[in-house]
């Protein structure tokens, strides 16, 4: 033992140095203690137990500061060794070990790897089963820390934990005598339900078990032996669990009783602890157009006066207290339970190192963007964590609540507020998880149904907004209000109310204020009112003498900060959009890059020891506001393009993954804004756009900076994925002007990352390649297109649906490129493109067309393009014959199946592309009739009018009569189109009515097209139809001729001249047909068309055209 101690002391070396030392030095204390622990061997002696106790105490008391230099795998190894040293019959040691597990995993933000997790879970479960009940609280805390973000890796232990007689089920039961144990058990369940994108969800049976447990917890009243704070934490954990199931677990509430019970308890919990309100709700809310039951106890007449008096007294008391608090500059604070919250992950095996601080909440109650280890998180779907409450003051102990700050009452109110915010966040997740038509039945329970002044109001969301007006609540209200349809000045009032809090002394209030500003600038952007507010002079409404006034840096502040050599050049070449700076952009930039001001940051809850910058939650929220501004107000943001480039480089160069991720997201938004400016349909004048030369300079800085390192940072796959998305947002015109080595760098990194084993990275890379393959400077590069095709085909085989969906989208883009290249005069691309690769693409697309709808919709698009691209040299080869038949059959079946409408629309579009390839045996092949039968079935009976429109467009593609097949086939198509025209207003879905005109336009075009190709044998069928429905067809064709200004996406002629020329061409063709002797059909059809033109030209006043028609 002594030898082990000597060895340990030698390894420790000198005492830990100052904060500025490198991570290796900073972690020396931990490594020293770890080495001493690892040197021990299991020993049941008293001295051994004492030494282990001391080591555990030292490990717990060690100062783990920011960037402690402790590797996650070292923590896991130490915990396994500690468990091996502690037998389960030593209750005190097991309790201390549980505290150590909980403390290290939370303080160092570590997610245990799968192998060590297996051992540690087995140990903790056995500990609960064998140790005394007084240890259960500590063991459950350790278990909650272990399963956090590891739910998918706990499958084999779920029966022991969540089975009928599972440990968590028993310990969370209402009969559990220890309220703290019950709360800890519910907390474990909530962490188990936290799903990490890219990993499997909790299995459905266990989801339902947990949901019922959480629901029962929320419905149960507070027991007499439970204090208010424990009860609040119990409710919070149950709400977190339900929210995780709805967000990450994708749980669907399909049962009416299930949904109604949840909504009922959420409504009650939204008002938890609000003074003056004590509502009672039914156990279940049922959908009904009638007002919902309001369980507030009625006020008896004789009590009215006294109640009113008490209310008045309470209001006076509240006013005095509030005035006193404002005078003293005191704010309510909240404390953390020191437990793992359901919050984002930030790295490979490591959580957000600042989760002990205030988490950064974003607009709409959605949390700051997560990072993940080994596919542990994703940007496309983020579970909303209300643990990141904007008012949350985090501390390590309850002693932070001093008597001067309101004592226990203030603390209870603080926890009650967290419950209300949690209920609102859970309500938002519930709304997002159910269909609107289902939600409408419950809406009367949450919105006021008696808006008149003086009338009795039911308790609603409006009541909560009025009684609990925090920036977090306002952010949700702002985000869901249609300000584009409301009167001006409403947002200005909110804006002016929040300004004084932008530089509040409490970082949590400042974060919440930025959250609200982010909600304002992202709501129905761009709004003229917000544009004016953003362009206010820097001092407008912000310069007061009080300490809450925000300090805005002068316009030239950047020169005082480290800057790149390109800023002077950027200032010369920046477009002259507005000479007045946007004060909010300037504020956010200063928060992100400038050192914090001691005057207003001294009491920040999120401050990190030794950090010279503002607290991380504030910096992250500022970056999110910048991203919102780039998305909604780019014309204002573009003035700061190069400055924001410096901000992004700084963020990507920092050690913290969450800052890097937010920097990458800002880069993506800026890139997207630049692309929008240069789109063909952009309304931005050329002289108001950012010059391409400046965009090239911007991206050159990005590619010469830390962006490539972020792309190669395999320890943080979510960062890699976000960097891929950013790289795909480069302006094509700028990419073509980059130096060739920078172009090669982008392509090489993307093709290399496509081999990543992480699904998030692979999905992002597949999408980025699908963007690059459309670049004009790359799409004719046969080698690049072939390399991209092989990479995409590999991703189409991935087990992840998200990866396959992105790969299918990219395959569709790649085949679009093939069509563009085919239409160029130079045939070299078609000649050089590998026939074997085409064969592989066809096979992969056919298989993908059998996949889920997300994959299928783009797979059929790719099939249509590939069949269109096939050259006669391919079609003649026997090995292509079978695959062509199979591909067309795949399209036909997709047209007919009851799939998502987007899938069927794409299948009809693809069928039209097939018909464009004149080398295919359309009209003679056996599949011809099957293809036409499928399209005619859709055009007459599909519920979705956009699909009908696309099928009619496909039927009008073939350019020769022989492509329509036999006379019977032609007649079937003709009759189907006439029937479809007749039924063009038959729908029970009101939303489809807006497509009626477009549908008739496309059907009329198809009918006229068929007339312009008709043979003598087809005329009798046409005549019969016109005799029965001629008036109806004529009226709709006349509408078609007169509606020349109407535009649609089917390629129909847009001008009246083009449309009447179509009818003239059809008339000329019919007149040229050599009719059989005695056949009157030709004359009847010509008369029909002449009548249409006569009426049309007469009504339009075109006498010259009318005279020409008469002479004919």
TrEMBL record:
Gene3D superfamilies, per the entry: Leucine-rich Repeat Variant
One Pfam family this sequence matches: DUF4042
Compositionally biased spans, kind Basic residues: 313-325
Limits of the DUF4042 domain: 472-530
Compositionally biased intervals (Polar residues): 301-311
Region feature Disordered, mapped onto this chain: 290-389
Source organism of this protein record: Phocoena sinus
Protein name, entry field: HEAT repeat-containing protein 6
Signal sequence segment: none
């Amino acid at each position: 033992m002594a030898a082990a101690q000597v060895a340990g002391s030698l390894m420790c070396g000198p005492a830990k140095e100052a904060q500025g030392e490198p991570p290796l030095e900073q972690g020396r204390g931990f490594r020293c203690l770890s080495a001493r622990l690892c040197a021990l061997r299991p020993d049941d002696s008293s001295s051994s137990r004492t030494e282990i106790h001391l080591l555990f105490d030292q490990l717990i008391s060690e100062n783990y500061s920011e960037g402690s230099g402790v590797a996650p795998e070292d923590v896991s190894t130490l915990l396994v060794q500690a468990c091996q040293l502690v037998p389960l019959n030593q209750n005190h040691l097991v309790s201390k070990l549980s505290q150590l597990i909980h403390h290290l995993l939370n303080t160092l933000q570590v997610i245990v790897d799968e192998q060590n997790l297996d051992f540690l879970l087995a140990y903790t479960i056995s500990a609960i089963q064998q140790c005394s009940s007084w240890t259960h609280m500590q063991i459950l805390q350790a278990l909650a820390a272990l399963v956090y973000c590891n739910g998918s890796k706990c499958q084999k232990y779920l029966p022991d934990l969540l089975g009928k007689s599972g440990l968590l089920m028993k310990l969370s039961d209402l009969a559990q005598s220890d309220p703290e144990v019950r709360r800890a058990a519910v907390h474990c369940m909530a962490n188990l339900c936290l799903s990490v994108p890219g990993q499997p969800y909790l299995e459905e049976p266990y989801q339902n078990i947990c949901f019922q447990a959480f629901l029962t917890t929320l419905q149960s009243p507070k027991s007499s032996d439970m204090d208010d704070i424990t009860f609040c934490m119990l409710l919070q954990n149950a709400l977190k669990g339900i929210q995780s199931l709805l967000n990450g677990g994708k749980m669907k509430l399909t049962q009416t009783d299930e949904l109604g019970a949840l909504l009922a308890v959420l409504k009650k919990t939204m008002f938890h602890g609000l003074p003056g309100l004590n509502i009672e709700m039914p156990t279940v809310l049922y959908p009904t157009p009638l007002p919902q039951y309001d369980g507030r106890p009625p006020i008896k007449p004789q009590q009215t006066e006294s109640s009113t008096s008490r209310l008045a007294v309470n209001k006076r008391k509240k006013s005095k207290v509030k005035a006193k608090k404002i005078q003293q500059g005191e704010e309510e604070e909240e404390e953390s339970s020191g437990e793992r919250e359901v919050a984002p992950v930030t790295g490979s095996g490591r959580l957000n190192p600042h989760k002990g601080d205030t988490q950064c909440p974003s607009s709409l109650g959605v949390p700051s963007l997560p990072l993940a280890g080994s596919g542990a998180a994703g940007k496309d779907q983020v579970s909303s964590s209300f643990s990141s409450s904007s008012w949350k003051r985090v501390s390590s102990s309850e002693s932070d609540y001093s008597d001067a700050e309101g004592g226990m009452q203030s603390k209870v109110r603080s926890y009650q507020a967290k419950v209300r915010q949690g209920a609102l966040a859970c309500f938002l997740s519930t709304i997002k998880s159910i269909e609107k038509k289902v939600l409408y039945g419950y809406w009367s329970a949450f919105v006021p149904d008696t808006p008149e002044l003086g009338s009795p109001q039911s308790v609603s969301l409006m009541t909560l907004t009025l009684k609990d007006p925090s920036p977090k609540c306002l952010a949700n209200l702002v985000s869901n209000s249609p300000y584009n349809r409301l009167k001006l000045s409403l947002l200005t009032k909110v804006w002016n109310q929040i300004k004084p809090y932008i530089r509040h002394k409490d970082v949590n209030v400042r974060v919440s204020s930025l959250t609200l500003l982010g909600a304002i600038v992202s709501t129905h952007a761009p709004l003229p009112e917000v544009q004016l507010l953003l362009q206010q002079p820097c001092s407008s409404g912000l310069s007061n003498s009080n300490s809450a006034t925000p300090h805005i840096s002068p316009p030239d502040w950047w020169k005082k900060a480290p800057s790149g050599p390109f800023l002077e050049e950027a200032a010369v070449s920046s477009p002259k959009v507005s000479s007045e700076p946007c004060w909010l952009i300037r504020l956010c930039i200063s928060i992100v890059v400038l050192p914090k001001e001691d005057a207003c940051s001294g009491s920040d809850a999120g401050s990190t020891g030794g950090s010279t910058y503002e607290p991380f939650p504030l910096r992250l929220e500022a970056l999110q506001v910048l991203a919102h501004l780039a998305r909604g107000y780019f014309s204002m943001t573009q003035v700061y393009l190069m400055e924001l480039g410096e901000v992004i480089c700084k963020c990507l160069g920092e050690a913290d993954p969450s800052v890097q991720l937010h920097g990458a997201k800002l880069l993506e938004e800026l890139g997207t804004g630049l692309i929008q400016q240069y789109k063909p349909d952009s309304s931005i004048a050329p002289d108001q756009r950012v010059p391409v030369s400046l965009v090239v300079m911007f991206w050159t800085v990005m590619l010469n900076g830390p962006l490539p390192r972020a792309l190669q940072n395999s320890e943080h796959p979510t960062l890699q994925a976000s960097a891929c998305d950013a790289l795909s947002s480069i302006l094509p015109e700028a990419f073509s002007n980059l130096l060739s080595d920078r172009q090669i760098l982008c392509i090489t990194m993307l093709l290399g990352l496509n081999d990543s084993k992480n699904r998030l990275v692979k999905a992002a890379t597949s999408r980025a390649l699908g963007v690059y393959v459309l670049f004009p400077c790359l799409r004719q590069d046969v080698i690049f297109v072939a390399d991209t095709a092989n990479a995409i085909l590999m991703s189409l085989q991935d087990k992840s649906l998200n990866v396959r969906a992105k790969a299918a989208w990219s395959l569709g883009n790649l085949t679009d490129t093939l069509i563009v290249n085919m239409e160029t005069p130079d045939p070299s691309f078609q000649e050089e493109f590998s026939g074997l690769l085409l064969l592989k693409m066809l096979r992969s697309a056919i298989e993908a067309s059998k996949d889920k709808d997300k994959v299928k919709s783009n797979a059929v698009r790719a099939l249509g393009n590939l069949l269109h691209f096939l050259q006669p040299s391919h079609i003649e080869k026997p090995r292509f014959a079978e695959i062509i038949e199979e591909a067309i059959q795949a399209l036909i079946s997709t047209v007919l199946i009851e799939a998502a409408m987007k899938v069927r629309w794409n299948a009809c579009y693809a069928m039209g592309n097939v018909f464009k390839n004149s080398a295919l045996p359309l009209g003679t092949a056996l599949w011809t009739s099957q293809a036409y039968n499928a399209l005619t079935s859709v055009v007459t009976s599909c519920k979705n009018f956009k699909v009908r429109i696309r099928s009619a467009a496909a039927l009008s593609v073939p350019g020769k009569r022989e492509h329509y097949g036999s006379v019977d086939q032609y007649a079937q198509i003709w009759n189907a189109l006439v029937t479809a025209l007749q039924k063009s207003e038959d729908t029970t879905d009101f939303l489809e009515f807006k497509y009626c005109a477009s549908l008739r336009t496309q059907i009329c075009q198809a009918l006229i097209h068929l007339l312009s190709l008709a043979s003598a044998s087809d005329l009798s069928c046409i005549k019969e139809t016109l005799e029965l429905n001629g008036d109806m067809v004529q009226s709709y064709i006349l509408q078609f001729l007169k509606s020349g200004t109407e535009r649609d996406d089917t390629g129909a002629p847009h001008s009246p001249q083009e449309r009447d020329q179509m009818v003239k061409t059809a008339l000329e063709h019919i007149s040229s047909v050599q009719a059989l002797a005695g056949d009157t059909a030709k004359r009847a059809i010509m008369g029909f068309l002449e009548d249409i033109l006569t009426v049309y030209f007469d009504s339009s006043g075109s006498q010259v055209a009318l005279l020409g028609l008469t002479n004919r």
